[in-house]
């Protein structure tokens, strides 16, 4: 699905209330229609992959919680939400057709348009409506049947090579005001929804046999349904039929269901497949690097990179794999590996771009005083170090300097302790690596605030 | 198209078609950095007539992980005075850290910050502003904030 659909697509159409249905069939995490929806114990539903990723991203020390209500969520307690899955499948298939119907201009029937009405519509709409009204007005105001020999129904009802004729009669309360408008099902699928928009009008569809029994068979698959449903169903039915014709390995049993079946019947071929095994999560602390690598090799995954990369790769793979195992149409392992590769290349691409040169230079400039100070101190330290007798004194100077800086800024006692610890480390490292004294100092002091708590 | 750009594309179109009052997209050319202008809509004397600019920085882990959000200075855009907003633009707000949930969006975060400003009547910076700003990391996400003050 390349086009990005959104619940807001329904605003401005004639069925704005479908916005709520559309929004409820979407995962709150990825904002897309549910894929293999799973329900938490707190009765919130997410895509399998979304909720699994969400749980996997939680630090092991904490319990994962529901993104919506923050109730604790355990991965093993997730349950498939089959009804939602079926609803999404139906809605996704029907969405385009309903959207076209909802966006088409309303059919204007012989009710005279009042001046207030015409002021409400925009000029472009008014033009459209006028054209429509004119075309309706051209026709005789009596009910038209296929037998009448009028040219109107013949003009209307061709669709592709299937010469299926429909004649739609609008029946509005008062018989004398009846007007017949022929509908081309392909070009104007708005007939069904216009009926629901006008509470006082109803449809009687007379099929080729002239049986206005209320229910009509779909001309393609013979499924019997109400006329409104046919409008929506037809487009999908054609697609389905074409797909079926191309599928050569379709089992004969599903075709032998007979001409009449319900809309809900689904091919059960997937059920016969052997279900995919779920992968367990790993306690990474229990694996050293080489064990973790061999674990990845065992799974057929690349085993290069740092330990963090290995862990991330494994975590992502477990989420991808398990979500795929939940799917009704599971991908092949090769496709999954490609997904994993895409994910990883995105991550590394981002890591390179994350801190741009601009950011670094700006940050460097804003902290240049601190850098100068540190360099000066380090230089002093190095000089003193050259004189072996003064070695101890130099270390102490740095310690006092750093400590007094924090004392001035009136920090909490625990933090002083932390600073003490770092000081000792700084001194230790300066003594060990004389040549890099300056670098070591800068490194340690710059990274230090990262670990400290900012107190508000 | 990776998942996070799809979701961001959807959020962007939503922000543009149904903009919330006082929140407007200033720049969103890619899926890495967005600039959002926010205004406080009530008559809070601290912020009346002023516009502030928020910078959102996304990673491919969005929305599972929170975006980096901070105020930035620019022509006519200052860092708002607030006891939880440092003078370098970093914001101490739980939804940007431990309180993040993947159902949140750029719009909802902007609205949280907007209401955080609207509810403030103290014209001051956080007590440890000078110390924090002197040694702050580039990314506010690298700071472990302690959220203990729910009064503002």
Automatic annotation (TrEMBL), chain A:
Primary residence: nucleus
EC number: 2.3.2.27
Feature: compositional bias, Low complexity: 191-205
Pathway assigned in UniProt: Protein modification; protein ubiquitination
Catalytic activity: S-ubiquitinyl-[E2 ubiquitin-conjugating enzyme]-L-cysteine + [acceptor protein]-L-lysine = [E2 ubiquitin-conjugating enzyme]-L-cysteine + N(6)-ubiquitinyl-[acceptor protein]-L-lysine
Region (Disordered): 118-205, 243-274, 382-424
Compositionally biased tracts (Basic and acidic residues): 407-424
Location of this chain's protein in the cell: Nucleus
Entry keyword annotation includes Zinc-finger: yes
GO molecular function: single-stranded DNA binding; ubiquitin protein ligase activity; zinc ion binding
Record InterPro entries: Rad18, Rad18_fungi, SAP_dom, Znf_C3HC4_RING-type, Znf_RING, Znf_RING/FYVE/PHD, Znf_RING_CS
NCBIfam families: rad18
Family assignment from sequence similarity: Belongs to the RAD18 family.
Function (record text): E3 RING-finger protein, member of the UBC2/RAD6 epistasis group. Associates to the E2 ubiquitin conjugating enzyme UBC2/RAD6 to form the UBC2-RAD18 ubiquitin ligase complex involved in postreplicative repair (PRR) of damaged DNA.
Protein name in the entry: Postreplication repair E3 ubiquitin-protein ligase RAD18
Organism: Lipomyces starkeyi NRRL Y-11557
From TrEMBL, chain B:
PROSITE patterns reported in the protein's UniProt record: UBC_2
Annotated UBC core domain residues: 3-152
Any one GO molecular function term: ATP binding
Classification via CDD domains: UBCc_UBE2W
SUPFAM superfamilies xrefs: UBC-like
Assigned keywords, A-Z: ATP-binding, Nucleotide-binding, Ubl conjugation pathway
Gene3D superfamilies named among the record's database cross-references: Ubiquitin Conjugating Enzyme (3.10.110.10)
PANTHER family: UBIQUITIN-CONJUGATING ENZYME E2
Name of this chain's protein: UBC core domain-containing protein
